[in-house]
Amino acid sequence: MTHPAPARPPHDALLDLAPPTAAEFAAVERRVAALLDTGNDVVIMQGEALLPLEGCVKGAARPGSTALNVVTGPYGQTFGGWLRDCGATVHDLEVPFSGAASAEQVERALREHPETDFVSLVHAEAATGNTNPVGEIGEVVRAHGALLMLDAVASVAAEPLLPDAWGVDLCVIGAQKAMGGPAGVSAVSVSERAWARLAGNPRAPRRSYLSLLDWKERWIDTGRRALPHAPAQLEMAALDACLARIEETGLAAVQDRHARAAAAARAGALALGGGLTPYVHEASAAAPVATTLRAPAGVDASALVAKALAADPELPLIAGGGALAAEMIRVNHYGPHATASAVTRSLRALGDALAVTAGTGAVPVDTEAAARAVAEAWA
Ligand SMILES: *Cc1c(COP(=O)(O)O)cnc(C)c1O
User: Fold this and answer.
1) Is the shortest distance between the CB of 185 and ligand 1 below 6 Å?
2) What is d(CA 118, CA 366) in angstroms, rounded to the nearest whole number?
3) CB of residue 76 inside a 6 A radius of ligand 1
4) I need a labelling partner for 251 at 20 to 30 A (CA). Which of 83, 155, 169, 175 fits?
5) Same domain as 316, residue 260
């Protein structure tokens, strides 16, 4: 099977673009706020989502502060490093990547460390395929009084995300996953409590690319009349377009497509056989953005993925990162790949690769049963 070269926009669509005006920039912020159903300030940061995430951590944490860092995947590990860099005392709540953190675990950790004033949590982890019950966790964090930062990059548009209703003080999103948008700009909603925390922290970044306070002082507090510096016009145009597409389709429909893709991938993998199993044990803890599978014993996940991709390089398949590369297969069914067809083709390719990889005595593979299970679960 041959594939056409990826479509590239003509040069004139990319060059000589006027930057968005302050009014246009502010309008995009209002539409992100609507997407998140938030009444808090939204700041659009001119960089990938790790920029506001680092800005939030470095703005809130300081020597003398105590953080509970919930680790359900690689991003939680990153946040722990930043928190320690800031001189905060950090307690990591590590949960196996095959499950989710529970509100009870968070409550217990807060009871053990009552001085905790900051909690960092990832909503969905694309890298490990799990999702956490943020509403329930937010309730116990709010009752304790700590500030809650949420990384919602992999959950926004893939599943319900309600930062205000859930008591999230700092909610970071990016458009590059389920929104199908650009990776080069990102957004964060900031509660009044979070602004007060940042303003009261002498170590919070100021006059810095990481600074949320700069955006507050130079942009929000001056009535959003003049942008502090030249915005990334291509990325802002792409964010505008991707918001428009979600507004036309309806956020619920986009989320529904991702929920179906996850249900179909799980059901299809179970029907496929071959010893492949869902990496996340409970379906309720499986993220709508991506499904992770455990390779059968004796089969290297990255070699299996390489074989499947050799048959069809456009499949949304990748092996787990770092130490997970040997055992984890990720089906990244988000954005344009949140379709029954992408899920079916991914499972067929994995099944075909398994059939030629696994030795005698291996569990048989049934790609037709997988395709039927995907179709049923999708419907
Ligand atoms: C994808 C993702 C990000 C953004 O990081 P990139 O690796 O640059 O795409 C941040 N947090 C989570 C939970 C993500 O899944």
Assistant:
1) no
2) 48
3) no
4) 169
5) yes
Q: Where are the alpha helices (DSSP H) in the chain?
A: 11-14, 22-35, 50-60, 74-85, 103-112, 134-144, 192-199, 212-215, 233-249, 251-272, 301-311, 340-357, 367-378
For 308-364, what is each residue's pLDDT tens digit? 999 999 999 999 999 999 999 999 999 999 999 999 999 999 999 999 886 656 788
Query: For 95-145, how does the pLDDT look when each residue is reduced to its tens digit (9 = 90+)?
Result: 999 999 999 999 999 999 999 999 999 999 999 999 999 999 999 999 999
Q: How far is CA 28 from CA 61, 122, 241, 304, in A?
A: 29, 24, 10, 42
Q: What does the alpha-carbon distance between residue 266 and residue 367 come to, in Å, rounded to a whole number?
A: 14
Looking at ligand 1, which residue's alpha carbon is closest to its atom 11?
A: 153
Structural domain boundaries enclosing 81:
21-248
Residue type, 39: G
* CATH code for the domain in which residue 278 is found: 3.90.1150.10
Residues 215 and 290 in one domain: no
Q: Are residues 158 and 42 in the same domain?
A: yes
CA distance 162 to 347: 32
Contact 33 CB / ligand 1 (< 6 Å): no
Let me know if residue 15 belongs to a domain. no
- Ligand 1 pocket check: which of 69, 72, 75, 79 to mutate, most ligand atoms within 8 Å of Cβ? 75
* Secondary structure of 333-376 in HEC code, one letter for each residue: CCHHHCCHHHHHHHHHHHHHHHHHHCCCCCCCECHHHHHHHHHH
Q: What gap in Å lies between CA 266 and CA 279, rounded to an integer? A: 10
Ligand 1 neighbour 354 (Cβ under 6 A): no
CATH number, residue 239: 3.40.640.10
